[in-house]
Every structure is written in C-alpha cells, then in structure tokens.
Amino acid sequence: MSNLEPNPGEELGGGAAAAVAVEPVRELLAGRQVPLGPRGDLVTRTLPHRDRRMVGAWCFADHFGPKDVATGPGMQVPPHPHTGLQTVTWLVTGEVLHRDSLGSRQLVRPGQLNLMTAGRGIAHSEESPAGSPVRRSPTLHGVQLWVALPDAARWVGPAFEHHAELPVLVEGALSVAVLLGELAGHASPAGAHSPLVGAEATTVGPVDTRLPVRPDFEYAALVLTGEVELDGVPLAPGPLLYLGCGRSDLALRAGRSARLLLIGGEPFEERIVMWWNFVGRDHDEIVGFRTDWEAERGFGAVAGYPGDRLPAPPLPATPLKPRGRIR
Ligand code: MN
C-alpha cells in the first residue's frame, strides 16, 4: 500500500508518553476517506488520526473494500518506497500479489500475513492477480497497517516474511488469530521490533467473553465485518475505537458473525516524522529518502510489475517537524 494522496501533508506521530491515556478510555475515532491509486478507489484511514496518531508502534491503518474486483485491474499500487516501518497486509476476502526489491513475489490470502520490514529502505508493489481469464476472487477486502520501527531497528536491512499459518486461539464460536506479538499465550512467529500485538477475532455465532490484555499496553480496535460490542461500546465497520492503557482484560460480545482487528502495544516514546511512505525522525532525513527515490538510488528495483514506479509527490512548503503523539 502506498500513501497516494497527491499532496500528502505531514503525518504527525510519536512522542510524549504523557499524551497516552494511562487509564482505560473509549474514544471513537472516525476514519477519513482517502483516494488510493490512480483510479481513486477510496479507503478508510483511521491512523494517523488528528486526535490520536499512534497506538503503540502502529502508525497507519487503511481499511479497503469490500470492493468488486471481478473485472478490471482491481488493486494496482505501483512500485514505491518505504523506510523506517513495517507493513502488515491482512485480507478478509480476495488476494493481493506483493513484489519487492528483494525479489520477493508472494500472493497473500485471507488468514495469511504479509509482513514487510522496510528498515533503511525497500520498494514494493501490490496488485490484484491477473490472468486470462482473470483468476481471482470477485471481492477484495482487507487492511494494511504500518508499524513504526524504533531507533534501535530502523536502519536494519529490508526483509519480507509471509506466514501462511498463524497461531489461532479457539474458544466456542470465537477464534483469534495472532498476527504479531502474543495474546493469551499464543505467539506469532512474525518478527516485531517493539512490544506490540496485532490480532484478529472472528466470531461465527454468539460470543460473550473477555480477551486477556496487558495493562502496560494501549489498545485500539477496528471492526472489519459485522458488529460487536467491545468494552461495552457497540462497534461496526468505520471508526477506530481507542481504548488506552490499564486493562487486564477486554470484554467482547457478538451476536453473530463478525471480524474485529485488535492492535496494541507499549506506548511509542520516540517522536517520528511520517511523510508519504517514509517514517523518519526529522525533515532532512525525509528529504534524503525522497531524493534517493527520485534518483533511483538505495531502494532497489521491483521486477515484474506491469507499469511504472510511483514518483514522489512534492514536499510541503513548510519544514517537516517531529512531533508528539497528539500534536
Ligand atoms: Mn506500500
């Protein structure tokens, strides 16, 4: 996924732990519709949010679809760069083909995790699989999230992981797949660089339970399908429910089929600058990343994508500033 806003503003994130809700809260953060790709498909972006820029190290959340991709090109995100983050691709329905400058070429399907670690720099593309006739599911629906890398890991070499099998906790009509980190003793094999968790709870019937969580983590949740009641708050697809810290469990109720994505982590202490597809620490770093991408230097090339790479948009007129979690 690429941030394809033609003139992306500065995306603020990171910073003072004082701005983290240390007590349980229930803040509904409305998403905004953002065009993705040259054809302007809209996705719902809930992170970064004006009022809440990060949840743990999670710094970006796009919910796309359900979209009819039975005909036409489907999703087409041309080669573009990333730095200082990991991308997490998770599907409800459909398929996405990932290619990157390490030479990876990997189809991801529902229930599987594509985790790309940009580190000091990588380029990738994402597309609906083609073929003649088109061989893909008629509906594409999923999320892409970004995780900011802490200072200790942000210059690591780029890496790509595909996990077809993830640990799943099953309890009656509830199953919980652990994408990143650990939940209820189930640990994901995916590589994380800060204390965090990402999990998807799927219900196939009535559920009334409590998910074990950590008081030192802050959490937020996004419903992908159906409706649930989380910590007493009715939740449907759209907003991100920010929950703060301070809980040891989280009440989850559902009447029937639903899917809920839970993200959380230790409050991220570092201030970051997020602009276009880059996460850095100051203006000059971002300028350097952008200059390298425009000069076709340092990110490598993505082989096989049927189209041109994305040019970087112009930098904003005012210098990018590292800022706190809220402002
Ligand atoms: Mn991307």
Concise account of the structure shown:
The protein is mainly beta and 327 residues long. The chain has 1 helix and 27 strands. It has a 7-stranded antiparallel β-sheet with strand order 2-23-20-25-18-15-14, with no helix packed on it. The chain has a 7-stranded antiparallel β-sheet with strand order 3-4-5-12-7-10-13, with no helix packed on it.
What does this protein structure show overall?
- This protein is mainly beta and 327 residues long.
- The chain has a single domain, classed as Jelly Rolls (Sandwich).
- Helices cover 4% and strands 46% of the residues.
- The strands form six sheets. Strands 2-23-20-25-18-15-14 form a seven-stranded antiparallel beta sheet, with no helix packed on it.
- β8 (96-100) and β9 form a beta hairpin.
- The longest helix has 12 residues, at 283-294.
- The chain is globular and about 55 Å long.
- The model has no long low-confidence stretch (mean pLDDT 92).
- Bound molecules: manganese (II) ion.
- Manganese (II) ion binds next to β6.
